[in-house]
């Protein structure tokens, strides 16, 4: 029941993704604009960011142009139901980063709770993945939201204003992978020392 | 109290540093408190003082070699962590577990849960200023440690579960010992009741202190006794039955009040429920193998990601593993329940008196190495 | 030894020193300072069954100002190191350090190539007097460590030595 309902609700997020597939040019412009506004959003929180990360951002710029097109090309068709006994979750939802907030809102309205946020470093594909696990108190229904971002300039909108518990999970993911959660109130190191400027769970990390 | 918070911003506040060495933080938690007199305006927990890189270690050693780490994350309920990890791998690699092994897992995990709750009980009352209950609780706890030591070989940081079974079979003395312990514990519980639970000082320290609403618990992803004390009927053993838990008849204690007393009562009731599970498991304990004939040394789960949750003493412990088909993890994420449970401390403690906030913190049952991992 | 920073007194009162050290050895006040798993065994040592009071070392003090033994019970992370150092500096002389468990001795199971978070042993920055191996050490081992420390302070063993058979 819940599973079917949530699947349908999440499918609605894919509607405009299908459209963008037809017109990749439009996406490119839109995404470029988005990066700029995102950077503006992040500005107040940027004080503590190291120079290094600022440099990273600049370096990343040339690659940005090809990214949205690639993303649109392999945009998934919709939420996939998975075999619970084999995988441990019921619904697998692959979304572009800008849809995560909307998905979290849908789940919040259905009274889901956030179990955890996991970062994964796909170094071969030069991408960072963020996986959100949601579960429900009354009815067993584990929903996995996953999204990928460019490894050189990882930015994902925060969901900490919807799920306050996400605050720490996002900070932890920022600690370990350097993923910037745009709009997060405070991304200073949580588990690492206060002055830490390294991201230990990246695959190319060397102590 | 809420009026206090809405006062003018130039009112005088000061910052108070609690920890990382403070007896009430149960380890090395640090909390930066902004205080207005005796009242808390803001509380910011600072973690990471015992960050031990478990997730990084998961990526650079084989699946089997990570097993001992499980006992060192949540050392009070080490077997739950053992269980979560091996169960996740068993799910991912499709390893069958003999029924007797599952029963042994349940029995030992539940014993471990009781010992964890007993230690919490002692330490919590100690936080509130009562020293004696700690000595009673440790006395009972030592009996459990003896039993578990006879099977697992260690007192605290167990590494008893293996992929596809358990390490060691139990002896008859374990069964009789466990039954005797349950008998003893049932006699001790009324004493705890009279000595502590019905103690007017304890009631005054806990009743209506640190209320956590149902919605707050959900927004922060609180699980375990913290959620159950807030009226959320969620127990992984019931909601997502794993192992052989579906074969036992037990209740999930739920209290609606959401205050520290409710969380206290949930844990005290859980001791009895755990004993019920152990008794049924001992009665039904099947004969047979306890591990695969050939020890599983190489595990190669198929490419993909897997999730498995178990109910640890403090809530839902989840393992999310990402495999690239090799003999070690590509990414191993350990979802520790207290991490989420503690994150609500800031919101819940605002406007509270400092000593009351310590009662709230104690009632969350923190194990810091589990939070920091 | 923890006393190395203090100027030695010009005049020694041999017998008085002996009496003082006897008193110190038989009333060691450890600090309530748990870092990780070993702290639970430290609690167990102080609690009912093992009862550290039998050896005069049960007065666990939460304040470093009132202690003379620091039992480093657990892993010291790099984030924690300055705090441990401060606590040690706050303790009055004479003071001793017990490294309890493998983590405090050498980093224990958390040492691996590329580790970024822990200090590999308390003796990297503290003068450790007694090492107690184990992961975690049993309460009996901690008691033995305290007896060893007594011996180090007074120069003789108060309790019979337990021989391994």
Could you please describe the fold and organization of this structure?
The complex is a heterotrimer of chains A (207), B (373) and C (165). Chain A has 207 residues and is an alpha/beta fold. Helix content of chain A is 41%, strand content 20%. In chain A, a hairpin with a 4-residue loop joins β3 and β4. Chain B has 373 residues and is of the alpha+beta class. In chain B, 48% of the residues lie in helices and 13% in strands. Chain B contains 16 helices and 8 strands. The longest helix of chain B has 29 residues, at 99-127. Chain C is mainly α. Helix content of chain C is 33%, strand content 8%. Chain C has a 3-stranded parallel sheet with strand order 1-2-3. In chain C, α1 (14-26) runs antiparallel to α5 (139-154) and α2 (37-46) packs across α5. Chains in contact: A-B, A-C, B-C.
Strand content of chain B: 5-15%
What percent of residues of chain A adopt helix (DSSP H or I)? 40-55%
The radius of gyration of chain A is 17 Å
| Structural classification of chain A | alpha/beta
SSE blueprint:
The complex is a heterotrimer of chains A (207), B (373) and C (165).
Chain A: H1 2-11, H2 15-22, H3 24-42, H4 51-64, H5 67-73, E1 80-81, H6 84-87, E2 91-94, H7 100-109, E3 112-122, E4 127-136, E5 143-150, E6 155-157, H8 166-177, E7 180-182
Parallel strand pairs in A: 2-5, 6-7
Antiparallel strand pairs in A: 1-2, 3-4, 4-5
Helix pairs in contact in A: 3-5
Chain B: H1 2-5, E1 14-18, E2 30-36, E3 39-46, H2 54-59, H3 67-70, H4 78-93, H5 99-127, H6 132-152, E4 161-162, E5 165-166, H7 172-197, H8 200-206, H9 214-219, H10 224-228, H11 236-239, H12 260-284, E6 304-312, E7 315-323, E8 331-335, H13 337-343, H14 345-349, H15 354-363, H16 368-372
Antiparallel strand pairs in B: 1-2, 2-3, 4-5, 6-7, 7-8
Helix pairs in contact in B: 4-5, 5-6, 5-12, 5-15, 6-7, 7-12
Chain C: H1 14-26, H2 37-46, E1 69-73, H3 81-90, E2 96-100, H4 102-106, E3 130-132, H5 139-154
Parallel strand pairs in C: 1-2, 2-3
Summed up:
Chain B has 373 residues and is an alpha+beta fold. Chain B has helices at 2-5, 54-59, 67-70, 78-93, 99-127, 132-152, 172-197, 200-206, 214-219, 224-228, 236-239, 260-284, 337-343, 345-349, 354-363, 368-372, and strands at 14-18, 30-36, 39-46, 161-162, 165-166, 304-312, 315-323, 331-335.
Features:
heterotrimer, A: 207 residues, alpha/beta, five-stranded mixed β-sheet, two-stranded parallel sheet, 7 strands, 20% strand, C: 165 residues, mainly alpha, three-stranded parallel β-sheet, globular
